């Protein structure tokens, strides 16, 4: 299944974008349809509303946002049990930058991760059929892999921040950053 | 300018001066009350129709009276005149008074014996005028919408029955689509890209909404909202029509079930109040006298009430003519017909006043008392016996429900092989009791009746579904101010979901029986009505933060399940955007409103600044930027869904562009402009927004060439 990933700055502008498509056995690229390609940044922008909402909630009450992925337990938490980005005082789990599935749009699922500096890492997960906007098959997200992907991207991002030539909020144009992100995507998302 | 009224809002396309007004969120409740308001059929004789078409150039009495449907106390057709010549109005009123006075003095001079008649006639009119003054207020701004009395007119019952489809459709997606296309063409003609579109779009949606939830021509066997309640039988006194004519017409009406082939079993002419309408010439004392005598005779011998309409008012060049507007609600076919051609019906102002006077009389003295009488009769004869048997105990109900299960023969088969409850069956009487209570705005009563009826209808899913639907709607209508999250979750949503499931079940049953997908369409129309109605009522609740997700859910369900035409679907997409923009946390509601006002002001200021000085210095720019990015947004962060709203509006724009509705595209793009203004997304050439803007400019460039 294809993904569209973006790092969104404080003013809602994307500072980095990438689309990952799958390479299947017959070497056929299955990316997003042209229609969705034109729409993806707007879909992400729309879901920022919900990310903002979750960010400021101590305990998200709306079950709509919880992740239904029930594979395994323990570290595989769902948001409702841990509190949002602002930690609940009863939960000691510090690893809650990952918000899980925050939104959906006609078969596409949207996951998000917030850095401590308030940058938003957001990703649209398309269906393997990469159908149009009316496709109703919802994507199943592997939370563990997704979280690991985001965490490594976070690390990469912090390394970029440490670059004296980089100013926070500017678009990241480094090809090294891009190739690392893509290899992480291959590692975690399109196994 | 005059005050903004309900009619102005619903026909906003024809009152573009009001485009910048605001409308109350409860508007959908008013529209619903109008959509289920009592239906009055108008029967007249061919002579009278011909006379009317000669004098007023209107095809028939029905075609004339249909303009007067709506909120009677608003007198919106008269407003049409006062709006255009607000200053002249005072003169016309005094003019009118003098006409009445001279009429009276003429009468006194001509025939002293007529004095009592004339005074009694005038006394009646002054009474109605008094009452009118008391109740006359703008229905849009009334705190309690239930105070307004709406009515709808329709064709004679025989005509409706003859043209009736046998498939029990509530409305037909295709006609709705044609209407929308025609209406959009009218919008395209009468507006520009710069016309303020916010209210106009809402009005367009509500026109669409009102057509989907109401009909004056389809007689549903499962509910009685569209069944006529009053039958006006008109006689032309000036053409010498007498008691015998009236009597024959009444007999014809009462015998409809014998004379009309396939008369539906669920209609009972005894539950329709016949009222005679005598059309006379107010300047002729003989005719006034004749009216008095006839009304006495009708009452004494036929037990039927009469209203008299001074229809044949002498006209000359100085008579003020008022151009009438289309009624707010009408049958879909009529709406389509009138969107296709110019309508230039004009009637004298004096006649409009008289018609509103007799409608006032008809509604308050005859229609409402009749409904209340029937309601209390059914309450006593059908509802009470059940209540006293049940006594609220469950184990008693078991026995009763067992008994009712055995009575499967209450369903009657009609000529087309459909099984319906007969009009005299307890179930249908209860349904009528509930519907009429709803129409007279006694929601508590209606809820109780629907609730008790729903237990009886478990074996009849078609009836059950609409019963559950209206049970939920009574809750939303009646308990509007006290609807809480808990109530929505525990009462309203389960009822609605149950109703939708039952509609689904009945459509599947039909599909199994008939083997065709077409057979399920009637239920789909009910289902669509249910969802569109529920979502609108959710949006009219005061706490939009909790209620909008439900509205969104139902609208999305319509999009995925109902086979609406492309324009109708885009209307729903736009409504989704409205839903998201209404999703505001109550804590920051005022702040966001202030903020948007502030931003608008800044925008205006900046535009002026631009005009004044093209090369304005950078300092000013910085001030504006700082103002715009101040902490206002921080407070609202996460508590609004503005970005979602903008995205759905953009989607709608794309879909409008696919349909070549360029005016709508332009408006949608105007709406999203602010939201995307500061983002790079707006200017990226490979994205939707830029492409749409390009398509729009291409179209605009082509436009003058084709013109």
UniProtKB/TrEMBL annotation, chain A:
One of its GO terms (biological process) is endoplasmic reticulum to Golgi vesicle-mediated transport. GO terms for cellular component: cytoplasm. InterPro entries: Longin-like_dom_sf, Sedlin. Pfam families: Sedlin_N (PF04628). PANTHER family: TRAFFICKING PROTEIN PARTICLE COMPLEX SUBUNIT 2. This is TRAPP subunit. It comes from Maudiozyma exigua.
TrEMBL record, chain B:
Residues 605-623 have a biased composition (Basic and acidic residues). Residues 118-142, 595-623 are annotated as: Disordered. It comes from the Eukaryota. InterPro entries: TRAPP_III_complex_Trs85. It holds the Pfam family TRAPPC-Trs85. GO terms for cellular component: TRAPPIII protein complex. This is Trafficking protein particle complex III-specific subunit 85.
């Amino acid at each position: 299944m294809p993904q569209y990933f973006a790092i969104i700055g404080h003013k809602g502008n994307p500072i980095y974008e990438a689309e990952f498509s799958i390479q299947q056995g017959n070497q056929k690229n299955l990316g997003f349809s042209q229609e969705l390609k034109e729409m993806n940044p707007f879909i992400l922008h729309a879901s920022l509303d919900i990310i903002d909402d979750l960010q400021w909630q101590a305990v998200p009450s709306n079950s709509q946002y919880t992740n239904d992925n029930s594979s395994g337990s323990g570290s595989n938490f769902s948001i409702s049990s841990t509190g949002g980005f602002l930690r609940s005082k009863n939960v000691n789990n510090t690893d809650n930058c990952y918000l899980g599935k925050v939104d959906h749009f006609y078969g596409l699922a949207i996951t998000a991760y917030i850095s401590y500096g308030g940058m938003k890492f957001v990703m649209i997960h398309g269906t393997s059929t990469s159908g149009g906007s009316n496709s109703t098959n919802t994507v199943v997200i592997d939370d563990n892999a997704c979280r690991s992907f985001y965490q490594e991207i976070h690390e990469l991002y912090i390394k970029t921040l440490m670059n004296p030539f980089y100013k926070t909020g500017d678009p990241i144009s480094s090809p090294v950053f891009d190739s690392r992100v893509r290899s992480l995507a291959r590692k975690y998302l399109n196994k | 300018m005059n005050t903004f009224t309900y009619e102005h809002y619903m026909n906003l396309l024809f009152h573009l001066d009001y485009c910048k007004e605001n409308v109350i969120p409860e508007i959908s409740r008013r529209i619903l009350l109008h959509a289920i308001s009592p239906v009055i059929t108008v029967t007249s004789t061919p002579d009278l129709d011909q006379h009317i078409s000669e004098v007023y150039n209107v095809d028939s009495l029905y075609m004339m009276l249909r303009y007067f449907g709506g909120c009677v106390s608003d007198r919106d057709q008269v407003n049409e005149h006062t709006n255009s010549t607000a200053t002249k109005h005072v003169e016309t009123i005094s003019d009118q008074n003098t006409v009445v006075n001279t009429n009276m003095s003429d009468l006194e001079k001509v025939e002293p014996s007529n004095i009592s008649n004339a005074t009694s006639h005038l006394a009646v009119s002054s009474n109605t005028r008094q009452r009118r003054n008391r109740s006359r207020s703008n229905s849009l701004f009334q705190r309690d919408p239930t105070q307004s009395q709406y009515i709808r007119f329709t064709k004679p019952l025989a005509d409706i029955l003859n043209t009736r489809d046998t498939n029990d459709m509530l409305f037909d997606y295709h006609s709705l689509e044609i209407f929308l296309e025609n209406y959009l063409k009218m919008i395209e003609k009468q507006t520009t890209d710069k016309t303020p579109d916010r209210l106009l779009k809402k009005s367009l949606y509500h026109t669409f909404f009102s057509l989907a939830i109401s009909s004056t021509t389809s007689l549903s066997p499962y509910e009685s909202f569209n069944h006529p309640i009053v039958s006006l039988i008109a006689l032309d006194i000036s053409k010498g029509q007498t008691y015998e004519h009236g009597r024959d017409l009444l007999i014809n009406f009462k015998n409809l079930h014998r004379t009309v082939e396939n008369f539906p079993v669920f209609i009972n002419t005894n539950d329709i109040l016949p009222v005679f309408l005598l059309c006379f010439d107010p300047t002729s004392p003989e005719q006034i006298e004749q009216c008095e005598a006839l009304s006495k005779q009708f009452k004494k011998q036929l037990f039927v009430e009469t209203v008299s309409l001074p229809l044949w008012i002498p006209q000359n060049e100085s008579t003020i003519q008022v151009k009438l507007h289309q009624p707010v609600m009408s049958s879909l076919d009529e709406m389509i017909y009138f969107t296709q051609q110019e309508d230039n019906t004009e009637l004298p102002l004096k006649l409009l006043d008289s018609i509103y006077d007799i409608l006032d009389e008809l509604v308050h003295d005859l229609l409402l008392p009749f409904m209340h009488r029937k309601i209390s009769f059914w309450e006593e004869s059908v509802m009470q016996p059940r209540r006293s048997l049940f006594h609220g105990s469950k184990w008693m109900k078991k026995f009763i429900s067992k008994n009712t299960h055995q009575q499967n023969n209450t369903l009657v088969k009609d000529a087309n092989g459909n099984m319906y409850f007969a009009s005299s069956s307890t179930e249908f009487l209860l349904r009528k009791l509930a519907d009429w209570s709803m129409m007279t705005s006694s929601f508590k009563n209606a809820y109780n009746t629907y609730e008790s009826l729903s237990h009886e209808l478990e074996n009849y899913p078609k009836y059950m579904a609409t019963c559950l639907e209206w049970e939920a709607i009574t809750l939303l209508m009646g308990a509007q101010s006290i609807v809480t999250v808990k109530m929505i979750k525990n009462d309203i949503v389960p009822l609605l979901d149950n109703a939708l499931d039952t509609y689904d079940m009945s459509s599947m049953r039909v599909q199994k029986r008939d083997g065709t997908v077409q057979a399920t369409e009637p239920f789909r129309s009910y289902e669509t009505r249910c969802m569109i109605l529920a979502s609108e009522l959710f949006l009219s609740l005061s706490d939009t933060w909790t209620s909008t997700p439900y509205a969104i859910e139902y609208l999305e369900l319509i999009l995925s399940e109902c086979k609406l035409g492309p324009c109708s679907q885009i209307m729903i997409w736009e409504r989704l955007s409205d839903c998201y923009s209404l999703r505001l946390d109550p804590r920051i509601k005022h702040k966001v409103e202030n903020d948007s006002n502030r931003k608008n002001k800044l925008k205006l200021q900046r535009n002026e600044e631009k005009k004044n000085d093209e090369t304005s210095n950078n300092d000013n720019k910085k001030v504006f930027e700082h103002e715009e990015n101040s902490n206002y947004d921080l407070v609202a962060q996460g508590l609004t869904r503005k970005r979602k709203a903008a995205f759905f509006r953009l989607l709608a724009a794309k879909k409008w562009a696919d349909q070549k509705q360029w005016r709508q595209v332009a408006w949608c793009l105007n709406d999203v402009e602010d939201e995307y203004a500061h983002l790079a997304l707006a200017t990226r050439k490979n994205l939707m927004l830029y492409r749409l803007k390009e398509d729009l400019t291409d179209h605009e460039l082509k436009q003058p060439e084709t013109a």
